[in-house]
Amino acid sequence: MKALTVARADGQARLATLQTGHGLVETPVFMPVGTQGTVKAILHRDLTEMGVRMVLANAYHLYLRPGDALIRDMGGIQRFAGWDGAVLTDSGGYQIFSLGVLRKIQEEGVTFQSHIDGSKHFLSPERIVEVQEHIGADVCMCLDECVPYPSSYEYTSGSVDLTTRWATRCRTAKNGSSLLFGIVQGGMYADLRLRSARDLLELDFDGYALGGFSVGEPKGVMWEMVDAVMGHLPWDKPRYLMGLGFPEDIVEGVRKGVDMFDCVIPTRHARNGSLFTGTGRINIKHARYGRDERPIDEDCGCSTCARFSRAYLRHLFVARELSSYYLNTVHNLFFYTKLMEEIRAAIRGGRFEQFYRDFTLKWKGGELHNGSSVCNG
Amino acid sequence: MKALTVARADGQARLATLQTGHGLVETPVFMPVGTQGTVKAILHRDLTEMGVRMVLANAYHLYLRPGDALIRDMGGIQRFAGWDGAVLTDSGGYQIFSLGVLRKIQEEGVTFQSHIDGSKHFLSPERIVEVQEHIGADVCMCLDECVPYPSSYEYTSGSVDLTTRWATRCRTAKNGSSLLFGIVQGGMYADLRLRSARDLLELDFDGYALGGFSVGEPKGVMWEMVDAVMGHLPWDKPRYLMGLGFPEDIVEGVRKGVDMFDCVIPTRHARNGSLFTGTGRINIKHARYGRDERPIDEDCGCSTCARFSRAYLRHLFVARELSSYYLNTVHNLFFYTKLMEEIRAAIRGGRFEQFYRDFTLKWKGGELHNGSSVCNG
Questions:
Q1: By the 8 A CB rule, do A365 and A248 touch?
Q2: Is B84 a catalytic residue?
Q3: Chain B residue with minimal CA distance to A66?
Q4: What residue in B sits closest to A313 (Cα-Cα)?
Q5: Considering only Cβ atoms within 10 Å of each terminal Cβ, which end of chain A, N or C, has fewer?
Q6: CB pair distance less than 8 Å for B315 and A73
Q7: DSSP class of residue B145?
Q8: What mean pLDDT do residues B19-41 have?
């Protein structure tokens, strides 16, 4: 079965449909991050209302709590969590390797200590696939090794080989109807990235992800790595740039042919009071918004902007009311969802280059703009 | 203008309508507590959906943050907070006297330090009324002194006189169309309670509250104080028992002729995972709910029970997801709202005594039942 149907290309940008076990998902798509089986601060019905059809959950977190067997017994993550859209699960590689969790990497798999209670766990590539199948993910990710930045060429080269061997075992272990994506690694070495991609292509995955970013590398280097690989990925399979990013990064990624994105930025920033507008971000805690009767963004159609002023949202944020996190998250995710709709409309209309140029001119990053562009978690 | 229209009495229990600046409110009514201008963890639209027509806000908190002048300039609390129902503001007496805020009581008013930043403030009875009028409350409360429990007869007697003098000044200061309620004090001395009530009756307030409870007194003593006063309050004016309580307390209060209640119990307990069911409370964090596919309460019609299992709600609570507080709060407030509807229907049908007996038989307080019954804040 072919998971992706490309409807239209515009340069390298592609408009496509991803067939999942829980419906069709139009790409390019941004997947909100629901680490523990729920997108932080809001409800799944809010996601449905704003048109989100696919979210990311985290196999590492759900394996630890409430446990993959429990989710399986409850009928899978969609039934358990009351979400009728698609779910992609991150394998946990990023969490295990990059979030400071105590871990040991061996050929057989990874041994690590839980960030919750310090308990010791071993996960093999086979078990990681089983965990994701128990969760009931529509798209599963292979176990991979994320190398730190910087890492030596030798270490990274050996790591690419390990990731390939693990990917082979994941491919064999796959048992259900979920899609399984391979993850291209290779640190910041273009030739290793290419080798990783070619190794994985031989295994014929349902889709290909680019992982191992958000580890402190300069943004330019990251895009070089993307460029090194993208042209070698098959046209008819989904391409997923993991853990990215700010709006400008998503627009850039689409231009390079990426179909899928996920990032904690819209949700985490919302909880920090950093809100997206058509020209960049504002921080709602600033005193200047204390008596500002305008919505966050006058052009926004979200339910927060329809009902609440900056003044009230500032009050809620400063008073640390839980509804602040809710209302801010609704706004930021609506912003991302609308951005993806605009991107898809531009590709559909054969005017993505124009969209890209207009966006780049208009988008200043706002008062909070900074150079950091990638995220994960 | 008469604020209250009694439609039906059943024993001492009354079914009535309170006319406010923001619509009619059927009584007996339970007002969810929205201390800082929002009921914690949920949105005003959720309150509207479940039929809540009146909430409590706290003048002390809103005076400190964002400030009453700001709320006035933003068009009042309803416009500022996007809430189209009625608002009663607590004067702040309870906060200033009982929450450990550093304060000094003088004839002129109270001097206290902000719990937020330690800044020093003085509020006279006149200013307290102005603050509430700036906020745009539909019902304002007089400044009163809450005496600690226990307090000597002499101290309490003097305090009643001070509360009466302050009430007189509040009555004179009232400027707008808001309703103004007097607050009966008198500690745990029935004769002082009665004197306080008679003093206030001479001032002809729009309604009468019973305050100064939730200070550590035994429940039986509290009810004695209520009994001492209730028969002396005018039939055609609203009676408000401040800061109460558990469902059994509300049913008891209605039976004694109380029209209005407020309490943080349903919302605070929700955030602690303590959820109301038809027979009492359960704590969702218990391991026994880990694989429980039932809703919190199979007879409940709330949106949480319609969509989520105890197993998932336990996961959200244990994982400290913000949506846990939201979903739990929706459930508990729906429970209280439905309880009030049932109470009103029983009075309307002339069968409140039967309702009272059935409720008392069925209601066991649940696994978490304890003797504490009053709350405030």
A1: yes
A2: no
A3: B315
A4: B81
A5: N
A6: no
A7: P
A8: 97
